Amino acid sequence: MATQALPTLAQLVAETYRLSLVRGLEDELGLLGYERVAGVDEAGRGCLAGPVVAAAVIPPLGGSIPGVDDSKHLSPDERERLATVIKREAAAWAVASVPASE
Fold first, then answer.
1. What span, in angstroms and rounded, lies between the C-alpha atoms of 8 and 97?
2. What is the pLDDT of residues 46-84, one digit of tens each?
3. DSSP classification of residue 46
4. What is the pTM of this model?
5. Which DSSP symbol is given to 35?
């Protein structure tokens, strides 16, 4: 198994800033009293091209998961790695699939 290079300080600062932007809405909702906010996304074209798959994740309370981004911006290996991290660290997560026949 190949080892990954450690991120540079500049990369860590950039990722911290990006995550603060991503968490901006959650932070604002927290000020209004909301404790948990789920991020939700879907993929698929329904009856035109097969199933629709949707996922929801509630990040760790007061935190985020570094590296999480739009799946189109991630390599397959990075998506697999992050899926493992999300399942381990998220407050909650769910994935559902609906076949085209429905």
1. 38
2. 566 778 888 999 988 767 788 887 778 889 999 999 999
3. G
4. 0.67
5. -
